[in-house]
Amino acid sequence: MRAVLRQPELDAAFKELVLTLPSETYLAEQLDEVDPQRIHAVREAMREQLARELHDDWQWAFESHRYNGGYQPDTLPAGRRALAGLALTYLCLDARSSGDAVWPGKAYQRFKDADNMTDRFNALSALVQSGHALATPALARFYSLFKSEELVLDKWFALQAGACDRSGQILPAVRQLLKHPDFNLKNPNRARSVIFSYCCANPAAFHRADAGGYVFWSEQVLELDAINPQVAARLARALDRWKKLVEPWRSAAREALVRVAAKADLSNDVREVVTRSLAD
Predict the structure, then answer these.
(1) What is the CA radius of gyration of the chain?
(2) Residue 245 has what DSSP assignment?
(3) Tens digits of per-residue pLDDT, 218-238?
(4) What is the residue extent of each domain of the chain?
């Protein structure tokens, strides 16, 4: 991986693509039996090893690709921004393990000084995904800057709902996001940015040992079903692959599906999804 990162003949966008690990969802799809927490633990251990072992290389990549002149929506600078963002994420991740305050501080400064959304959001994401304390003021600042931009605000919500779950903190955070003044369950994009980001794109946070994620899922499917059955049906598919889960997740997921299916006035859209899932 070091050879790829340092190879001068390779395009920055290609490097970023190659060096980005497969998602936990993709890894789970390759297995006959799925242990969500083991997948998360192994993938995070690999990310931490890459952050530690390639620290100097990530630093080189960031410093070499951070300046791209005035913003241009072209392929070359876009690739350079992407690689700089990936490098910053790994540097902040390593800082979490080592206790170093320098790189999180640089990420926060880049977040404040960025002249384009990509660099600003990449820096914010690096802080959030590494779980650094500076993520809190950065998130507040981002919200104050873009609270009137609906699509940007969707990204702000999704980033938090999809953050790395290290101590079971994501589900309580998601429940708080549902109480945010700018969250509206009747807005499909806003519902996707929070609920779908958690249930469908954050496996380790969703597949909790206490089944709290499944309880949350069933609550949201039922609540959405009364508002927008089509969106609720798409959310219901988050447990399509429940039979591949190892215990205790398999039994807990089935219980959640049964709970949804038991609702008397369930829409045809959602009933079709959960009935088929239970029968398959």
Answers:
(1) 20
(2) B
(3) 999 999 999 999 999 999 999
(4) 1-146, 150-280
Non-local (6+) Cβ contacts of 141 within 8 A are: 111, 112
∠ CA 103-107-109, rounded to 5°: 115
- Which CATH number does the domain 150-280 belong to among 1.25.50.10, 3.40.640.10, 1.10.10.1100, 1.10.443.10? 1.25.50.10
Answer whether 1-146 and 150-280 agree in fold: yes
Reported as a single tens digit per residue, the pLDDT across 106-132 is 999 999 999 999 999 999 999 999 999
Other Cβ atoms closer than 10 A to 112? 12
Q: How confident is the model at residue 67 (pLDDT cuts 50, 70, 90)?
A: confident
DSSP per position, 71-112: ---SHHHHHHHHHHHHHHHHHHHHHHHHT--HHHHHHHHHHH
Query: What does the longest C-alpha to C-alpha distance in the chain come to?
Result: 62
Q: What is the pLDDT of residue 70?
A: 74
Instruction: Give mean pLDDT, residues 252-268.
Output: 97
Classify 1-146 by CATH class: mainly alpha
